[in-house]
Amino acid sequence: MNPRLDLLQPYPFEKLRVLFAEVKAADKPAISFGIGEPKHPTPEFIKKALAESLAGLANYPTTAGSDALRQCIATWLERRYGLPRVNAATEVLPVTGSREALFAFAQTVVDGTRPGALVLCPNPFYQIYEGAALLAGATPVFANSDPARNFAPAFDRIADEVWQKVQLLFVCSPGNPTGAVLSLDDWKQLFALSDKYGFVIASDECYSEIYFDESRAPLGALEAAHKLGRGFERLVMFSSLSKRSNVPGLRSGFVAGDAALLKKFLLYRTYHGGAMNPAVQTASIAAWNDEAHVRENRAAYVRKFSQVTPMLAEVLDVALPDAGFYLWADVSRTGLTDVEFAARLLAAQNVTVLPGSYLAREAGGINPGANRVRMALVATPEECLEGARRIVEFCKSLG
């Protein structure tokens, strides 16, 4: 067996399952703010495109995907981020969801034979980054989120001797779980560090299409590079239809950026077996070509957040994130730790939230997720409001 498998920590939801095994949930209908799985209806036109393309199942798909899908994605990138021509043949690669692609990309770019190979991750973070680093033969290191900057990672606190060994930097913008969006100044700093030390930047942007002001879409990595007058050298971004179009089961996304990196990544994926189902490719084209359903989806989140956030702010330290569909709430004023809060909330109200410490690692002597909980407002407005009412009731009962 690969001994590096023993380095992997339990996934946050496995930790939650163990925690809740000793808790008897309140006798009320269960409400989950735990898992970030979109619950809004999948648009009918996407399901129709999928169903009408099932004849494609008779053919093996190519790893690179169809020309039509790559061109569709390239056009979306140009439209969404104001980019000049994106080369669909060399700068875009469809993937079967961003999760597997993030993991596989680390296996492609990390040279685990180099002594002291490091992969830098935000903290708190999406646990795939850590597992990808470990199984690629590197050691994960962490940049803690900075509450003073709406929880953007404090990359300026990373020492030079660490940067010298970093081979890959994972960025998540908008962030999971914090919702923080990197600014152009943040990207300028990261590009300068990449130029100096030669590491690759992998920007996870799967929450990029959920935001609260139609006039202020989150800045993307490729967009930042273009605004700063540079190319895509040592830079790739990952996106997905899961959150944007409410199709997490479709497993459809893409990687775009540095053509030289994508050429090697395509080679890896040819052996890895990451080709996308032909019917899924057709449905994906339909989804990427339509923005009306995305605007409707955003509007639904805006309505929920505008109602739920003020309610919870009465009893917890919580504010609207930059983007995304999570609330990152500080529970310190309740006198409970994040783990205690989650367990007692389930027992009292049958509402599930995810302890923030499960999403982070201790770095610099602190766990930046401690005393915070992540709440995914993915359910119906009615269910989210009921969940918020129960949380308020629970917090007041601690009084």
Automatic annotation (TrEMBL):
Molecular-function annotations in GO: L,L-diaminopimelate aminotransferase activity; pyridoxal phosphate binding; succinyldiaminopimelate transaminase activity
GO biological process terms on file: lysine biosynthetic process via diaminopimelate
Enzyme class, first EC level, given as a word: transferase
Short name of one Pfam family: Aminotran_1_2
Aminotransferase class I/classII large domain mapped to chain residues: 30-391
Enzyme Commission (EC) number: 2.6.1.83
Cofactor: pyridoxal 5'-phosphate
InterPro entries linked: Aminotransferase_I/II_large, DapC_beta/gammaproteobac, LL-DAP_aminotransferase, PyrdxlP-dep_Trfase, PyrdxlP-dep_Trfase_major, PyrdxlP-dep_Trfase_small
Keywords carried by this UniProt record: Aminotransferase, Transferase
Protein name in UniProt: LL-diaminopimelate aminotransferase
